[in-house]
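Shipment paperwork, digital attachment
Item: protein structure file
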Amino acid sequence: MQRPLRYIIAIWVPMLVCFSMQARQPFSKEVWLNETNVAVKVNCLVQDNYHYLWLGTD
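Attachment content:
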């Protein structure tokens, strides 16, 4: 009796965890440069140890 219960739990727990997770929208934001009036699409932001902000663009 205990083995079927283990199999059911082993199947249902991962399924419930997968269904409860929600997907996020990928980060993307347009930034306008004043000098060129061109929109730049920013995909990622990183700040280093010297407090410089690095932007990942297309």
